[in-house]
Amino acid sequence: MGNAQSYVVPSLSACCVYLVYVHIYCSYRLLRTNVLYDEKLPSFVYLYIKYGSKALFWRPGCLHTHTANQPEVVYTVLNCRLQTPLLRRFCSAAGYGWDYPDTEYRDVPLCFPEVLCRRLLLMALTDHNFQLSPAGLLRVRQSVKTLQPVDELKKGPFRLQVRVQEYRQLEAGQEVDVCLSATSRTGCPVWESVLTLLSQNKLHKVSRRSPENKHGRQPDDVKQVELRVPRTTGLQCVWFFSDCSPYRLLSLAARLFGNRSQGAPSLWMLSVCLAEIEKHKGVGVITAPVSVSAQFKEPLLVPGRVTIKFWETTKDVGESPAIGFHMQQHGSDISHVTGLISR
User: Fold this and answer.
1) Is the Cα torsion angle 191, 216, 272, 122 positive or negative in sign?
2) 3-state secondary structure 97-159
3) Per-domain residue ranges for the chain?
4) What is the percent of the chain with per-residue pLDDT over 90, rounded to a whole number?
5) Does 291 score more than 60 pLDDT?
6) Could you read off the pLDDT of 102-132 as tens digits, one per residue?
7) The model's pTM
8) What is the DSSP string of 143-202?
9) What are the helix and strand counts (H, E) for the chain?
10) Is the CB of residue 63 less than 8 Å from the CB of residue 174?
11) Distance between CA atoms of 90 and 68, rounded to whole angstroms?
């Protein structure tokens, strides 16, 4: 017994030292610069530790400033590669089909580059100079645009970047705009997404319900699709990053006992809307250059059923037609997502 303990204790100590060195110390050293390489990124373990420490000591809904001239939060990752297995899983989970985008004339889905930015986004939200608590951030708006087909990212190493743009004080709390972007190997911008996140003041009860459709009245030729929302929306290890809330992992036990407090991720809802529109309207409506704006309303509890409506609309006289879309709870007027696809 004594000999066994003499081997076990040093082995465990060596493992602990190795894990601390690899997952914490090396990640700490990497984050001393704002330009990194895809081959060497900080571990999720270290980022979760930073997330937990900020969530524990920083109060949501308050702006935390350290100096008068707060340094800008921006991270760039070079030599990124498009991961085909992850792309296939995303397409299957978001309703495009397991063979997408290998079918002819189809581009990489519009929302997929955000999946590639998941670690980059977590790096920005846990940065010491990010002025809000990362816990409980709500995605309230998003705008996505492509300047070139996303397929350009398949042709070689590309660059990803995250940049915190602007903070705004509201009655409900603090809003922040975070810009994600992808640049091709030739240095040309390909894709950009601006996320508007709300750090809610707990003393203020906020509802994201909107009584009227900002994108105009729905015409008579509205097409609609009814979908079943499964208990798990697939690719959970990716979706929970889209809402900046690793607490989703902690809710697994509650879901096993039938608790419906788990909501469908915002990125999944937007991806499903775009997938259904492309199936019925054709790939041309999403072909670059294109812009998509979306507002996220009430959370979508799973499992459940939703109705996706889409229609052609013209914002102003002389402009090319755009496509409005709306996801709502099946059989009710509870709105989850409204949006507009335009050029």
Assistant:
1) positive
2) CCCCCCCCCCCCCCCHHHHHCHHHHHHHHCCCCCCCCCCCCEEEEEEEEECCCHHHHHHCCEE
3) 29-60+72-342
4) 45
5) yes
6) 655 678 899 999 999 999 999 999 999 999 9
7) 0.85
8) EEEESS-GGGGGGS-EEEEEEEEEEEEETTEEEEEEEEEEE-TTS-EEEEEEEEEEEE-T
9) 9, 11
10) yes
11) 42
What amino acid is encoded at 103 in this protein? T
Paired tokens of 236: 């959970």
Which CATH fold would you assign to the domain 29-60+72-342? Thiol Ester Dehydrase; Chain A (3.10.129)
Looking at residue 37, the DSSP 8-state letter turns out to be E
Indicate whether 243 pLDDT > 60: no
CB atoms within 10 A of CB 39: 10
Total length of the chain: 343
- For the residues 216-231, what does the mean pLDDT come to? 79
The three-state (H, E, C) secondary structure of 277-326, written as one string: HHHHHCHHHCCCCEEEEEEECCCCECCEEEEEEEEEECCCCCCCCEEEEE
**Would you call 173 exposed, middle or buried from its count of C-beta atoms within 10 A (0-12, 13-18, 19+)?**
buried
Identify the residue whose tokens are 């390909």: 190
CA distance between the termini of the chain: 73
Exposure string over 219-231, b if 16+ CB within 10 A, otherwise e: eeeeeebebebee
How many angstroms separate the CA atoms of 242 and 336, rounded? 16
pLDDT for residue 4 is more than 60: no
